[in-house]
Write a structure and sequence with these properties.
By secondary structure, the chain is of the alpha/beta class. Helices cover 28% and strands 20% of the residues. Strands 1-3-2-12-11-8-9 form a seven-stranded antiparallel beta sheet, covered by helices on one side. A five-stranded mixed beta sheet has the order 5-4-6-7-10, with no helix packed on it. Strands 14-15-18-13-19 form a five-stranded parallel beta sheet. The chain is elongated and about 100 Å long.
Length: 435
């Protein structure tokens, strides 16, 4: 096992370069009421890794009171990880389902006690780069940060794609910062300008070009001189303007409305859209030649549901600095939510939770209307004692007359787990059935 320091999502270069196969990792995202960011690299040579509250465990979480001393074991199995419940009090959950033994795949969320981990299969040759705005320890966001550094200094037009709320403008600004260009970053929302004024807004106009044009206007292209121009929601650009945009991109010039003289422009253009531009071409809604010119380079941004280890970090940044702790049931629902509006939805959830600053802790019920998914059968959020002593188990057996199903329901465990724990204490359920 090779644990990395808290908050460090970068694999050591010599370690990564020496490995040819993908790397299995467990990333802790929440433990003992605290949002965490600790990466553990799994090595097949080291065999089983025990997780629990005891400090001798390879994955030790001493502050999680819902964990058993030795709660679960993780074992690398090729490009998968096997998890086994070690007879824990509160069980092991995988994507909301209680398991005794399960094979885990990329992106699976594991809950043990009040600790949550995400399994990832990572490219060993992809070294992360820091960025103050493009946040998230997930492999998907590591790839975005690496791509930003690789693409930033190219003068070629770049198309950013991704669902609404995935942070396309944030990434465009990161591209500008890394580009070395000294001019400004200018963003224009193509869906927010009217078709009648679009040409003037983009390319400018001269005084007297039309009624109300009392003075010259530079337009967005020239405003971004020496810098970067973001054409956001380019899929909503009026069809009449598309050939003029194509010419501006091909010639690096703009012709202001009311003028016949082209003006040279040096602005790196980044376009962004949540729409499928290719599907718009056959109906004439988007020009194929413009698409080819806009998408000289491409960068697709991942939806939040594919980067679950980033969710709690993003939420923390939106909450007040000092906020009540998050209940494990809330954490589980957040990690399993579909996040159809991505980061914008995180902002909405945080705004709702911020209203509960005086609460003892932040609960799922406080934002239930925002989440499309409540946790399924789950581990307890409170330290409700599951019997550990033989005397406690014997009392349960007497109360339920040896009925294993009834005991399992009361303690929130499977019948097999209950039988194993009874056997550990030398208790035979059949001896209590005729009591």
């Amino acid at each position: 096992m090779a644990p990395l320091p808290d908050g460090d999502s970068t694999l050591d270069a010599s370690t990564a370069a020496s490995q040819r196969a993908p790397v299995l990792t467990l990333r802790t995202v929440f433990t003992g009421g605290v949002v965490d960011n600790k990466l553990t690299v799994l090595s097949a040579a080291e065999g089983e890794l025990r997780a629990g509250r005891h400090p001798d465990c390879e994955l030790a979480f001493p502050h999680d009171r819902l964990l058993s001393r030795e709660h679960a074991a993780f074992r690398p199995r090729g490009l998968t990880v096997e998890v086994t419940d070690l007879g824990s009090r509160n069980g092991v959950m995988v994507d909301g389902q209680r398991v005794e033994n399960a094979v885990l795949g990329d992106g699976d969320v594991v809950r043990i006690g009040a600790t949550f981990l995400v399994v990832r299969i990572q490219d060993p040759h992809q070294l992360d780069v820091a960025d103050e705005a493009v946040l998230g320890p997930s492999p998907a966001m590591q790839s975005v940060r690496v791509a930003v550094r690789r693409l930033a200094r190219s003068p070629a037009t770049l198309l950013l794609t991704g669902e609404t709320g995935t942070g396309k403008e944030v990434v465009a600004r990161a591209l500008h910062r890394a580009s070395g260009r000294t001019g400004p970053f200018v963003a224009v929302n193509c869906s927010a300008i009217s078709a009648a004024l679009a040409e003037s807004e983009l390319f400018g106009h001269v005084a007297g070009a039309f009624t109300g044009a009392r003075s010259d206007h530079a337009g967005y292209f020239r405003a971004a001189e020496g810098g970067t121009l973001l054409l956001d929601e380019i899929g909503d650009m009026p069809a009449s303007l598309q050939p003029k945009l194509l010419r501006a991109l091909e010639t690096s010039t703009v012709t202001p409305v009311g003028s016949t003289t082209p003006v040279a422009v040096d602005a790196r253009v980044v376009a962004a859209t949540h729409r499928d531009l290719e599907s718009m071409v056959p109906d004439g809604d988007f020009r194929e030649d413009l698409l080819a010119r806009v998408a000289q380079l491409r960068l697709s941004l991942p939806p939040l549901r594919e980067r679950r280890e980033d969710i709690l970090m993003l939420l923390e940044r939106q909450l007040p600095a000092k906020h009540p702790p998050l209940a494990p049931s809330l954490v589980e629902a957040l990690l399993r939510h579909s996040w159809r509006r991505n980061v914008r939805e995180v902002v909405a959830v945080a705004a709702e939770l911020a209203l509960w600053q005086g609460a003892e802790r932040l609960e799922l019920e406080q934002v239930q209307s925002h989440l499309d998914l409540a946790p399924g059968p789950s581990t307890p959020d409170s330290q409700e004692a599951v019997p550990e002593s033989a005397a406690d188990w014997e009392a349960l057996l007497r109360r339920h007359r040896g009925n294993l199903a009834a005991i399992a329901r009361e303690v929130g465990r499977s019948r097999t787990q209950v039988y194993r724990l009874l056997d550990k204490h030398g208790l035979d359920p059949s001896q209590f059935r005729d009591d």
